[in-house]
Design goal:
By secondary structure, the protein is of the alpha/beta class. A hairpin with a 4-residue loop joins strand 3 and strand 4. The structure holds adenosine-5'-diphosphate. Adenosine-5'-diphosphate binds next to helix 11 and helix 13.
Length: about 425
């Protein structure tokens, strides 16, 4: 095994694959000096796929290609990485790809940490398909494609979206349903975005130089999907997404929390099937549903600013109010926290949304420096509360791919991943 490993990170969905190639080793990890060699995304797999790839600081290389399935897309990525077009001095042939790290959506109760993939692990991921029928099959196909194209001997690692939240206590992960449904079908809160919450918690700890046991924070991943996590002594104590990513905060197209009786009510009033209702809650609700315009927060903010559109304003207000409510709940659950950390496309880029969320929170010691807040966009990291705030506020851009690459190196070398759930 070479010193520095070129790790291919794959995030395989049913019609989209995102990838990155990251060169790192334990020393680079310790020095935060991992090197991102290439990245890209392939969309509309299954037909005329649209591919956008870039290496180093080059402009994106765009192409279309007939890519029938995930295997064809992974093959396309690998060929491109090895091609003169990519121009990667580090990658002369497939032999220069030393490991593959996969984002896997659902690890159920079985996977509490990232693991080296073998047949038994694949069976375990397969067993969780019931819980993530749209995602886990694509993740498995990504693993099988890489195995076929790069050789069965190449180490592959699974990094689970659910793993970080496996420390939730029973009273936080159980729903108050008849207990046998948990026993029989594992109906419970799993939580998602775990790699993102874990990464920003780890990064926060690095910034403030605290031991893991002293990290008591609330992390807010606000992107297209949104979730909050209450982190106590470095471990996830509660999180807003549930058995599926539908629960909790208002999202781009997902409703987040609703009264479950609404489902039956709407089915009978609108003559909808269960599947249609689920589609409604996942794809037509949230910011899109309230505004009737878009699921894109940037567009909503523009609309609110330029046209004072009432429903755009309402959607933004609903979004921010729900986040604030969760912060309050998690402050209570944690018995107080030292900081709230914003991440994800909205959390990292919108000073306006951050300020609205934090409005009126002086009662719990949160005082914003509006000028600093305004500067924290476009990938900048920092604290935007006043220095004497009892509750601090930070922006920390997430980097799930980096954490997947680091976990991959650590699993291959049998070094425990950082900031993961204790076994
Ligand atoms: P995903 O969850 O799909 O990874 P992202 O984390 O990229 O998505 O977040 C996408 C969201 O971030 C969109 O709602 C987008 O409008 C929002 N966003 C990105 N940049 C800005 C910005 N400058 N101001 C407000 N919202 C932004």
């Amino acid at each position: 095994m070479p010193g520095i490993m070129n790790v291919l990170v794959l995030n395989s969905g049913s019609s989209t694959i995102k990838f990155q190639l990251i060169a790192t080793d334990l020393e680079r990890i310790a020095q935060n000096a991992d090197q991102r060699l290439a990245r890209g995304v392939i969309e509309r797999i299954g037909g005329e796929a649209v591919c956008s790839m870039r290496s180093g600081g080059t402009l994106p290389h765009r192409a279309t290609a007939q890519l029938r399935d995930i295997r064809a897309a992974v093959d396309f990525i690998i060929r491109w990485l090895c091609s003169p077009e990519a121009g990667l001095a580090e990658i002369k042939s497939v032999a220069d790809i030393h490991a593959v790290g996969h984002r896997v959506v659902h690890g159920g109760e079985r996977f509490k940490q990232s693991v080296l993939i073998n047949d038994e692990v694949l069976r375990g991921i397969d067993d969780c398909i019931d819980l993530a029928p749209l995602h886990n099959p694509a993740n498995i196909k990504g693993v099988l494609a890489a195995r076929e194209l790069l050789g069965a001997g190449l180490p592959q690692v699974a990094v689970f979206d659910t793993a970080f939240h496996q420390t939730l206590p029973e009273h936080a992960y159980l729903y108050a349903l008849p207990y046998q449904f948990y026993r029989r079908h594992k109906v419970r809160r799993y939580g998602f975005h775990g790699t993102s919450h874990r990464y920003v918690a780890y990064r926060y700890r690095y910034l403030v130089n605290l031991p893991r046991e002293e990290v008591n924070i609330i992390t807010l991943h606000l992107g297209n999907g949104c979730s909050a996590a209450a982190i106590k002594a470095g471990n996830s104590l509660d999180t807003s997404m549930g058995m599926t990513p539908l629960e909790g905060l208002v999202m781009g197209t997902r409703s987040g929390d609703i009264d479950p009786s609404i489902i039956d009510f709407l089915m009978s009033k609108e003559g909808l099937t269960a599947q249609e209702t689920e589609g409604l809650l996942n794809k037509q609700s949230g910011l899109l549903g309230i505004s009737g315009l878009t699921n894109d927060m940037r567009e909503l903010l523009d609309e609110a600013r330029e046209n004072r559109d009432r429903r755009a304003l309402l959607a933004i207000e609903l979004f921010c109010y729900r986040v604030r409510k969760y912060i309050g709940a998690y402050l209570a659950a944690l018995g107080g926290a030292d900081a709230i950390v914003f991440t994800g496309g909205i959390g990292e880029n919108s000073a306006e949304v951050r300020a609205r969320i934090c409005q009126g929170m002086e009662w719990c010691g949160l005082h914003l420096n509006e000028d600093v807040n305004a500067t924290l966009t476009g990938g900048r990291e920092g604290m935007f509360s006043t220095p004497d705030s009892r509750l601090k506020a930070y922006v920390i851009p997430t980097d799930e791919e980096l954490l997947i690459a680091r976990d991959t190196v650590r699993c291959v070398l049998a070094v425990p991943p950082v900031n993961s759930s204790p076994r």
